[in-house]
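Figure S4 source data
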Amino acid sequence: MSHHLHFRSLYNGDTVRVLDVRCRPTDCSRGPEEFSDVTTVVFARGGTFVRHLGRQNIVANCNQVLFFRAGETYRVSHPVAGGDDCTSLAFDTEILADAASRFDPATRDRASPLDLTHGPCRSEVALFLHILRQRLRAGPVERLAIEESAIAVLDAILDSAYRTRGDKPVRGPRSSRGMQRERVESAKGYLSGCFRGHPSLSEIGRAVHYSPYHLARLFRREAGEPIHHYLNRLRLGTALEHLADGAADLTALALDLGYSSHSHFSTAFGRHFGVSPSDARRLVSSARLRELSKKLKAGLSDRA
């Protein structure tokens, strides 16, 4: 069987790689042996295929996620004409090991972090994946946002897969709440010095000596928001200060703060503050003038 595979890379980072795969086979029979060189999580958005792994026959469709583990050989057939359209997520091995160890502490002793072959795809996960995919296809997206979103997807599908198998999260050694808060404050401090750039989750993790996977989960829990939201608020707060000081070139300001364009900056600013950057500049400048005027009048009154 000839597969006629087409690939499109949507994101290629040090934490996760996202790839669209379209398969249009010439017939439905079992194909030649294939090989996985990296562990990937595969979502069949459309169509159906069967993965033949040893004596196991595992159906891939929109209701079920498949795990292609590094080092495994398999065959594929298509019981329904039309082929399939999939999105695959290939995570860094340490990310996979950290995520799987919540349910299976022995995962670090195996060559592949996962001992799963498949799991259910919940409706909310399928919807979130489609949203993430469309954002990637639409244009530049903050890589922190992509990496944190991908980890959230990984957590959701592993949770479903392990619980379906009867496994529950394992309580591991926990650091004190004070130490957890200290980790988060360290991350906030690091972000304060690099928010104009585009730090990856791995870079932030290395800076604070913490696993990127655990940092993403801990930051959300302790700070009440994901890291990329916090970083964006740093940019917007700084933008407001520049606008209050009368910054004239909004495009230059946007690029200096790490936004890809003036429109990207204006959209983010409007969503956060409810007004456009130019309107905010006028409002804040007027407020400062009134404040200075009151102080000046009060000073003259005191001298009289």
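Figure S5 source data
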Amino acid sequence: MSQIRVELQEWMGSDKAIAEAAWTSSSTLQGKEKKTDADVERVVKMLIEQKHASPIESVVMRFWIKMPIAIDRQHMTHRIGSHNGMSGRYRTMPAEFLSMPEEVRKTSTKAFKSIFGPSQEVYNIIYEYQHHCTTANIYYNKISTMLKEAKSTEAISNEEYKRLREFYRGVLPQHNMTERTSIFNLRSFANYQKLRNSEHAQPEIRQVAQLMLQAVKDKGVSPIALSALEQNGWNI
């Protein structure tokens, strides 16, 4: 599943921002200016342990993600911040689809052998996954090329061209790769990790969650809060 990729494009906020949000209800401006790094660590850990969630939302992150359309549908079930994704009206969709994972291939072989026995039919069925995905992408790209030609000769208007291009995108497989940006605050990120970075989650969406977490750790985003949330099972 190396085709799945995640980048943390930018972020806002810090452990100190979380603490200062909490201190708004209990300290004056002058009082907050006297707080130390030890005070920040203490209050951030206390907030997470006692599940005071709103200050955690002071940290906001924007991710770019490349994943299969089917996994994007799972991703989009989360209440996050905002999303932007690829548009078939303005882009020709890339002809890249998720390769069959080896564990899926092995399990499929076991399942179909129970029906057909050790026959070639078992391997034909597995091969057809790639065949159907490839065929759909070839058809879509053929249509896209013809539509571009029709627009260039002014046989159709630009609006008609965009309408047709978006419609014919519908033939593409659910495992075709798509791209999007998503904005999370740290509270929604924790909920995402709890649900999607779980042994019960589908492997592909779990990989998205794991790559997101690694990207956040690599950039050093709110390390105190992140560590406390992880130790707390992402409960907030």
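The mean pLDDT is 92. The chain has two domains: 5-90+178-231, 102-171.
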